[in-house]
Structures are given as structure tokens and as C-alpha cells.
Design a protein that fits this description.
The complex is a heterodimer of chains A (390) and B (599). Chain A is built from 16 helices and 15 strands. Helices cover 41% and strands 21% of the residues of chain A. Chain A folds into two domains: 255 residues, TIM Barrel; 68 residues, Arc Repressor Mutant, subunit A (Orthogonal Bundle). Chain A has 390 residues and is an alpha/beta fold. A nine-stranded mixed beta sheet of chain A has the order 7-8-6-5-4-3-2-1-9, with helices on both faces. A three-stranded antiparallel beta sheet of chain A has the order 10-11-12, with no helix packed on it. Chain B has 599 residues and is α+β, with helices and mostly antiparallel strands. Helices cover 25% and strands 35% of the residues of chain B. In chain B, the strands form seven sheets. Chain B has an eight-stranded antiparallel beta sheet with strand order 11-10-16-7-8-15-12-13. Chain B is globular. The termini of chain B are far apart. The chains are: A alpha/beta (390), B alpha+beta (599). At the A-B interface, helix 9, helix 10, strand 10, helix 12 and helix 14 of A face helix 13 of B.
């Protein structure tokens, strides 16, 4: 019974207004695979029509489950391999099927080599109001290493086009910590990116994953990943560099020109706001349950053609699991954890249960504990996973 | 009595004892193929997993011999490790003969010899059996030479078998009947029965395993344990099948069990003599000795809340392991726990594993210690097996530590390194002789503390598995002892303290700091580890803090993945003990005794 009431309380969220869910749409196609990427996508764009049909059906199966959405995020894969008319189909369908608030944040991920000015303009006309551009680097040698199919020049042109097309809320995605990259080289990419005055930057440390071309080359000893101190250096310098230029480091990998430019959609992932994911391998979260679709486009389409929801797996989260997630997700953000809310939602008084360890962290400069909140410092963010092992 | 044969199988470890027992059991039809499983006498999971026998077991095998008569062959299976050698000796005392099993590829090893000597001490008929003749590396000729030269046995008396393939088993059964003498004894004399084992049954209490030498015993008899003079009423007697088989009585020459309402196995001493209370025998059977623990360590629950559970677990565990002793203990660093005594490090290991497995506990063991003897200036003598109770150095007149005689056998090409190892371990009074060309037997007197920790592993790797080792406790000898403390971030962790020889203190301190550096995972802040004698720091190491996770992305699908990873890591962390602000893993406490060379 305790569990139930805690869950109810959690659902109420202790907020003044109920949180609005977010809608994610996964486009599983890529024209080519990047050397570092182990996300699910296919390079065969043949089944595109089948996929669009299935996606629209999937939306239909979820009608009525969520009251409304105030964000839509079209990610992938590479959404920009689709002709824009498909984006229009998708947006029309979800608007018809669900309640989308009028001021919703609608984001699409765009690869610099794909859409030109006319396409971008037409997206703007469809109500898309935020773009996330997968620039990754503004150095051609690095782009080749990453297996990207665009050049630095193409990326710069795309950035000009998006602003000509009328997009103000633009995120530039970048990757640092590449083999052979130095901090000055990275700062050069950052400076070039800043010349477009983006509203938002996502700066990811390169993760070398086993089952990727880069991972295999790494295993063969072709590359050496920098030592921990060097990786830490990249992380710290990125923060210092961007903070000094007016950006708010609001999450480990995310920087915004003010909190109103933070990714409203992504923030939902970090505080257990419900979200619905449509498309192969997309994850959803609602009523303390998380479920995910089949990764394979074939199985996804097959299930929907058979009138079934294409769910590949699900988990019912216990209060303990929710508490752990809230801890590690909270410690990724500059906002940190509000201890009172945390206690109310998850039944754990962090200060009472882990006081000495938290104080030790504070002494070690990893967190700041003030007015009922535990906020990671920059050094704390760098080790937020460890902190969550409290 | 003429149709009874009591025998045991003795062998060096891994020479195939359990497999041969399995074959004898199958061949005599005690067990059909359906109920049979390998190592059938090893009933504990831990025995089967490690391929060793920890508890003695006995089984009666019905056998019709070629002479047409029916016999009962009582097989008494014995533990196969030096920690349990007294139990082995009591099992042998219950037999008239043994099968001395020798691996056809490995030949005679240290425990083959040690077991042979034990058998000879008991005047047993010895049947050498060469096992594993199916192996490509089998060298029967060489083994025969060793039987002659090293064991001094007539090689013509040997049998050959492959227990694995089931060949030669019939010859062995015939030889048991023909060559091992029938037991002798007087059915009408006062009862004299030797206890060779005792096991705990949660319904019946202690089940006493014994060999009757004289007289008979039956349900209703009042029996007396001669060592402690306690008296019990017999509820049931019987023989051993795969389970217990109730009988009316047990008479001279027979092997069987007695249930007499004895609540704990600790009330029964292995080696003690059972007689009748109203008609006792004149004197106990020879060879009784109280088994005393030689290695001591404290056990603590990792979560202090689990203390009550641990208390219950050690109490229950003790019911079934008379050799395990414990008393309450508390540590400044680790809280409430128990100080425990063990027969050796294997025994310690087994107890730790069984407590964790059978009682679902997470426990920490302090650094093991032997029992030291101190004579204080006022003349009092104290035994100290817990470094926390180390006397004030100003009051110590004399420190002494237990010594053993170690005997080792190996091909002579390993002699040099092994002798260096023994000298490093403070070995003295060496003795060496060639048992056959190319093979030596080497003995040293060494401090027990040097031998039980770290010696055996290094010896084994040094001799590439060809060396074998056995030891006997001999006496206490004067030793210049000091207390080595370990400080973690300036805080003394008493469970990591050790009593060491002064000459070895610095090396041990360095070793402990190095090993702890390897064992303690990096944490959020710098950890300083120091070794200290008195107030003086003699060694140090530093664990640098953890500074960077790879934490790039965390969106929809990443959350479950990351949570699962953290859950796994949290589980690992639960197996660590928080000492101050530092998490110390279970493995660290044993690791401080080990040198780098065996990792």
C-alpha cells in the first residue's frame, strides 16, 4: 500500500501544473553508417513507404493514452534522408491523432548534407520550430574519421540556410575527444560553430563502442583513447569555454543560451515526465512503466500490419528503480536534485540516509548542498554515474 | 564378522578417489544408473564444485565374491586435504585395509606418502592401485618403480584400473575380500566403538558415525562418551546405504551410525570412544586427540544490520562443523562480529563460502592469524590469535610463534627455487633426500604463519603443479614479533592488522599497501594507505581518485541501460564494507597476505 500511495504522489509530481508529455518519433534510416555509431538504423531506404504507413498506424494505436503533448522530437537514424513530404505526412498524422499544444516545441534532427534552403523553408512552414544539426566537427579530417558524409563547408552552409529559412532555435551537435584531437583543435570547431550564434549546443564525448568500425580499429590498436585526465580536460574546457560565451551548461552534454533555449523535449527524459516514442526501437515512459518497440523495421512493420502494437519489451519500475534513475538523471543536470521533492516522490530522504557521504562529496568539491537541493559541480558532473552509486 | 571388510581409499588430491568410490558403488548395485550422479558421496555443492571431499562419508557395499559368499564391504571415504588430516586418521583407525590410489601419470606424491605412513601407523593392509591407466601420459612402469623405491611396497601386489572408464573394478573388489583381513573383536566384551565422524540432521540431531571394535550396541542402551563422560540413550542404530538403514544392533567389526539425542555435533569429539554406561570398557581406544584450530579470523556482516542474522547463521553452522569455533568479537572499524577458529585456510574458505551461500549473508573476514604466545614481564603467559589483543609491547618479555615441519616432494629440477622460497619463509633445519632418481623429498621447519598464507600457492606455481606439500605442527619458538597496522585515510582498520616478525615487517607493510592499492577500487577522493608499526609509518601507497565517467548521452533508451548498469555496480558495492568514507571489498582482507608473485 505504501508503494501505491508513493506512486500516486509521484504521479502528482508535486508540481503546480501537471507536466506535459513529449512525443518522440524515430526515423530508422541512414544513408551511410557513421564509424562511431551503434544506434539502430538501416541504410536500405527501400521500406520507407511501409515504414511511414506503419508509423501512422502506430500513432493510431496510442490515441487517447496521453492527454496532450507539448514537444515533438523527430530523431534517428537520420530524419533528413526522408523527403520533406514524409515529414509533413508524419506531422499531419500526429496532429490529427493527438492533441499537440499550439506552442509546442517541434524539433527535427538534420544532417548537413541533406536538405537545402527550399526544404528547410517548407519545414518551417509546417510548424517545425527547432532544428538539431548533426555537425559533429568543423574539421574535414575529423569528419572523415567519424565517417560522416558531409564536409565542414557543407555544414557551415547548412547553418547559414537554417537561419535564412527563419529558424532561431537551432542546436548544433558536436563530438569531442576524437583520436588525435587536441583541445585547441576542438576549440577551433567550437569557435566556428559559435560564429552562427546557435541557441543551443550539444557536445558529446566520443564513446568508442565495440561493434562499430571505429571500435574495431580501436581494438586493433590503431587508435588510443586519451587517458582519463585528458578526457576530463576536454569536458572541463568545453564547459569553461562555452560558459564564458554566455551558454548555460544545464546538462552534462548540453548548453543553452538561457534556460528558455534548453531542449524542452530532452528535459522530460531527465525528470520522469511521460513520453511516447513512435517508430522502431523507440522508448516510451508512462505510469512508471517503460516500454520499447522492436528494433527491426521489418518486425515493426509486420506487427503493425497485423494490427498489433510493435512492443519489443517493457519494464514496470519499482520505486527503488525510479529513485535510482532520478538520482543519476538529476545529477546530470545543473538543477540537481530537490531533496524535498525527491523524498516525496520516492520515499527516500537523501540527507538523512546518506548525509555523511554527501558531506564528504561536498568537501571534495563534487556537489553543492544548499536550500534543500543537491547540485553537481562541474567536477561532480564529470563523475555523475559514480555519485549515483551512493 | 568373517564376511565384513572395512576399508578406505587414500590418495593424493586429484588422483581419482571419488571416481573410484563411484565405480565401486555402481558395480555393487547400491545405486542404479537413474539415481547415480558423479561424486555421489560428496553431497555438498561446494564439494562437487571444487572436486574435493570435505566431510567423511561411509557406505556399506554388498558384494558376492568369486568364492560364492556374500560380503559387506564398508567403504569409509575420507577428506582429501591437509586441513582435515585428523579426521582422516580416525577414519583409517576404523579400517583393516586401504586402497592406496596412485595416478598413473603423476606417480607418487607427498600426500600419497603421508597417507601411506598414516596407514602403516594403523597396521593396515595396503593395496596399491594404479589409476588413470587410460591416460596417454600414463607411465605404469615408472609408477611401479616408485611403489618399490619410494613407498617400499611390493610392486607385484599392485592392481591397475581406470576408474573413469570402469576397468579393473572387479579385481579391486576381489582383492578387498581376499587381501584385507576380516575385522577381529569380541562380541561379548564391553562396548568399545570409535567415533570417526558426526553429522548434523535437523530432525534427529547428531548422527554419530562409528566403528565397533568390541561388544554390541542397540536402541535403548545408555552409552557414554569416554572423553567428556556424557551419557545418552540410544534411539537408533544402523548401517549406511545411500541413506541410513536402520538395524537392530551394531556389533564388533561393524561400521554404522548411532542416533542418541545428541543436540550438536560439538558434543561429540571425533576419535572419542563410545562405551556402555553400565558396563564400560577398561580404557578408551588409542589415538584420541582434541582437534584445535590453527588459523583465526573475525567475521563481520557487511551491513551492520545483518549482525543478528550472522549470529544465527554461525550458531546453526556450528551444529554441523565441530572443528569450527567462534566467540563474540567487535572491531572499531567493522563493528560487531565473531572471532572464529579454523583448521586451515581451506577450512576458512569453506566456512566463508557456506555461510554466504547457505545463509545468504554478505560477510567480511579479517586478515587471518595464527595463535601467538606471549610471556609478559610479570610472568603470565597469554595466547593471542587476534592482532587487536596484541599486548602492550613494553610488557612483553618473550614472543613465540607456532612452527611446523613441512614436507615437500618434487622433481629435483624445482629444488633451487623451492629452497629459496623456504628460506624466504624463514625455513630452518632443512633435510633432503632423493626418493628415486630425479625426485626429492625436502623438509623444512618453518613458522606456521609463513606457510598458511601465500606459501602453498607459490609453491604450486613454482613446481608447475608437480610439487606436493604436507605439514605437521611441532612447537612454539621464540620470535621477534611486532604489530603491523594498516591505516586507510589516516584511520586504523583493525581488521587489517597483522602480527609479523620484525625482520619481515617492512616487506609485509609494503606488500599490504601494494595489494590494497590493487584491491580497493578508485573512489571519489584520494585514498592514502599506510602501514605502521607503533606510531611509525613504514610503507604507503595512494589510490588516485576517479575523475571522469564516459557520460555522453542519456535519452529515452539509454536510461534503462544505464540504470541496469548502475544496479549491477550497486550490487558489487554491497559486497564492500564502508570503513570511514572508503569502500573496502571483501577480497582485500585476504589479499594483504599475498605477494604479487602469485597473481
Amino acid at each position: 500500500m505504501r508503494e501505491l500511495s508513493a506512486q500516486r504522489e509521484y504521479r502528482d509530481m508535486g508540481r503546480s501544473t501537471p507536466p506535459m508529455p513529449g512525443l518522440y518519433i524515430h526515423i530508422p534510416f541512414c544513408r551511410t553508417k557513421c564509424s562511431y555509431c551503434d544506434f539502430f538504423s538501416i541504410t536500405d531506404t527501400g521500406p520507407m513507404d511501409d515504414f511511414i504507413r506503419a508509423l501512422c498506424r502506430e500513432a493510431e494505436t496510442r490515441r487517447g493514452e496521453f492527454p496532450a503533448f507539448d514537444t515533438i522530437y523527430v530523431g534517428g537514424g537520420t530524419p533528413s534522408v526522408l523527403p520533406v513530404k514524409f515529414i509533413e505526412t508524419i506531422l499531419t498524422t500526429v496532429r490529427r491523432t493527438f492533441t499537440i499544444l499550439p506552442d509546442a516545441e517541434i524539433t527535427i534532427e538534420v544532417n548537413p548534407a541533406d536538405w537545402g534552403l527550399p526544404e528547410l523553408k517548407s519545414l518551417r512552414g509546417m510548424g517545425v520550430n527547432r532544428l538539431s544539426i548533426g555537425v559533429q566537427s568543423l574539421n574535414d579530417k575529423e569528419l572523415r574519421l567519424l565517417g560522416r558524409r558531409h564536409t565542414a563547408e557543407q555544414a557551415m552552409r547548412t547553418l547559414e540556410n537554417v537561419s535564412s529559412a527563419g529558424f532561431e532555435n537551432v542546436c548544433i551537435d558536436l563530438i569531442y575527444g576524437l583520436p588525435g584531437q587536441s583541445i585547441p583543435m576542438w576549440q577551433e570547431t567550437l569557435s566556428k560553430a559559435l560564429s552562427h550564434a546557435p541557441a543551443h549546443l550539444s557536445c558529446y564525448e566520443l564513446e568508442i563502442k565495440k561493434n562499430t568500425p571505429l571500435g574495431r580499429r580501436f581494438m586493433h590498436g590503431e587508435y588510443v583513447q586519451g587517458p582519463e585526465e585528458q578526457q576530463r580536460g576536454f569536458f572541463m574546457q568545453t564547459s569553461v569555454f562555452l560558459s564564458g560565451r554566455g551558454y548555460l551548461h544545464y546538462e552534462i552534454s548540453n548548453f543553452a543560451r538561457g534556460m528558455d533555449r534548453a531542449s524542452r523535449h530532452n528535459l522530460k527524459y531527465w525528470d520522469h515526465t511521460p513520453y511516447l516514442g513512435l517508430g522502431p526501437s523507440a522508448h516510451s515512459f508512462h505510469h512508471n512503466r517503460r516500454w520499447w518497440n522492436h528494433g527491426s523495421v521489418q518486425n515493426y512493420v509486420r506487427d503493425l500490419d497485423a494490427g498489433k502494437q510493435p512492443v519489443g519489451g517493457a519494464e514496470e519500475l519499482t520505486r527503488e528503480q525510479l529513485a535510482l534513475e532520478a538520482l543519476f538523471l538529476g545529477l546530470r543536470t545543473s538543477r540537481g536534485i530537490d531533496t524535498e521533492t525527491y523524498t516525496r516522490r520516492y520515499g527516500i530522504d537523501l540527507m538523512a540516509e546518506h548525509g555523511p557521504a554527501l558531506e564528504e562529496w561536498q568537501r571534495a568539491g563534487l556537489v553543492e548542498i544548499t536550500h534543500g537541493s543537491i547540485r553537481p559541480t562541474l567536477g561532480g558532473m564529470a563523475v555523475s554515474d559514480r555519485l549515483a552509486l551512493l | 564378522m568373517d564376511n565384513i571388510r572395512n576399508f578406505s581409499i587414500i590418495a593424493h588430491i586429484d588422483h581419482g578417489k571419488s571416481t573410484l568410490a563411484d565405480r565401486l558403488i555402481q558395480r555393487t548395485g547400491v545405486c542404479d544408473a537413474r539415481t547415480f550422479k558423479d561424486q555421489i558421496l560428496d553431497t555438498m555443492d561446494i564439494e562437487r564444485e571444487r572436486g574435493i571431499t570435505i566431510k567423511s562419508q561411509a557406505i556399506s557395499l554388498p558384494y558376492r565374491a568369486q568364492d560364492g559368499k556374500d560380503y559387506i564391504l564398508n567403504l569409509i571415504d575420507t577428506p582429501g586435504h591437509v586441513d582435515f588430516s585428523y579426521e582422516v586418521s580416525r577414519s583409517l583407525a576404523s579400517c583393516e585395509g586401504v586402497l592406496l590410489l596412485i595416478d598413473a601419470a603423476q606417480g607418487v606424491q607427498a600426500q600419497t606418502l603421508a597417507n601411506l605412513y598414516l596407514a602403516l601407523e594403523h597396521n593396515l593392509e595396503i593395496i596399491p592401485v594404479i589409476n588413470k591407466i587410460d591416460l596417454p601420459s600414463a607411465d605404469v612402469e615408472r609408477v611401479l618403480e616408485e611403489i618399490d623405491a619410494e613407498l617400499g611396497l611390493d610392486p607385484d601386489t599392485h592392481l591397475k584400473c581406470s576408474a573413469k572408464e570402469g576397468t579393473g573394478i572387479d579385481d579391486i573388489l576381489e582383492a578387498i575380500v581376499r587381501r584385507i583381513p576380516a575385522p577381529k573383536g569380541d562380541l561379548t566384551a564391553p562396548l568399545a566403538a570409535l567415533i570417526f565422524d558426526a553429522q548434523y540432521d535437523s530432525f534427529r540431531g547428531t548422527v554419530i558415525h562409528c566403528r565397533v571394535f568390541d561388544g554390541t550396541v542397540k536402541a535403548g542402551d545408555a552409552i557414554r562418551f569416554m572423553f567428556n563422560d556424557s551419557v545418552y540413550r540410544v534411539e537408533e542404530v544402523g548401517h549406511f546405504g545411500l541413506s541410513r538403514i536402520r538395524h537392530d544392533s551394531l556389533g564388533a567389526g561393524e561400521v554404522g551410525y548411532i542416533i542418541a539425542g545428541v543436540k550438536t555435533v560439538s558434543s561429540v569429539s571425533i576419535g572419542d570412544t563410545i562405551t556402555l554406561d553400565d558396563r564400560p570398557c577398561a580404557s578408551p581406544l588409542p589415538g584420541f586427540k582434541e582437534v584445535k584450530p590453527v588459523v583465526f579470523a573475525s567475521i563481520y556482516p557487511i551491513a551492520s544490520d545483518d549482525y543478528e542474522d550472522l549470529a544465527e547463521a554461525v550458531e546453526k553452522y556450528k551444529l554441523n562443523d565441530a572443528a569450527f569455533v567462534y566467540e563474540k568479537d567487535s572491531s572499531a572499524a567493522l563493528g560487531q562480529g565473531f572471532r572464529c577458529g579454523f583448521l586451515g585456510l581451506l577450512h576458512l574458505d569453506i566456512v566463508q563460502e557456506r555461510l554466504e551461500r547457505e545463509y545468504d549473508l554478505n560477510i567480511i573476514l579479517s586478515v587471518p592469524s595464527v595463535r601467538y604466545r606471549f610471556t609478559l614481564k610479570d610472568g603470565t603467559v597469554v595466547y593471542v590469535d587476534n592482532p587487536a589483543h596484541y599486548p602492550n609491547p613494553l610488557n612483553i618479555a618473550l614472543g613465540e610463534e607456532p612452527y611446523i615441519r613441512a614436507s615437500m616432494m618434487m622433481p629435483d629440477r624445482y629444488l633451487g627455487p623451492v629452497m629459496s622460497l623456504c628460506i624466504e619463509k624463514r625455513g630452518v633445519n632443512s633435510n633432503m633426500h632423493y626418493t628415486s632418481p630425479g625426485r626429492v623429498e625436502l623438509s623444512y621447519e618453518m613458522p606456521l604463519s609463513e606457510v598458511i598464507f601465500d606459501f602453498y600457492d607459490r609453491f604450486k606455481s613454482m613446481t608447475q603443479g608437480y610439487g606436493s606439500f604436507d605439514y605437521d605442527l611441532i612447537d612454539y619458538r621464540e620470535s621477534n614479533l611486532v604489530l603491523l597496522d594498516i591505516l586507510v585515510n589516516g584511520e586504523k582498520v583493525d581488521a587489517l592488522s597483522q602480527i609479523v616478525h620484525r625482520d619481515r615487517a617492512r616487506a609485509r607493510g609494503v606488500q599490504a599497501c601494494d595489494r590494497l592499492k590493487d584491491e580497493i577500487p578508485r573512489q571519489m577522493y584520494k585514498i592514502a594507505i599506510q602501514g605502521a608499526i607503533g606510531g611509525e609509518i613504514i610503507s604507503r601507497s595512494t589510490i588516485s581518485p576517479f575523475r571522469k565517467d564516459v557520460t555522453a548521452k542519456c535519452y529515452g533508451g539509454d536510461i534503462t541501460r544505464k540504470r541496469k548498469l548502475l544496479e549491477k555496480q550497486k550490487k558489487g558495492k554491497k559486497r564492500m564494507k564502508m570503513v570511514g568514507s572508503v569502500s573496502i571489498p571483501q577480497s582485500a582482507f585476504l589479499a594483504v597476505l599475498k605477494s604479487d608473485t602469485d597473481s
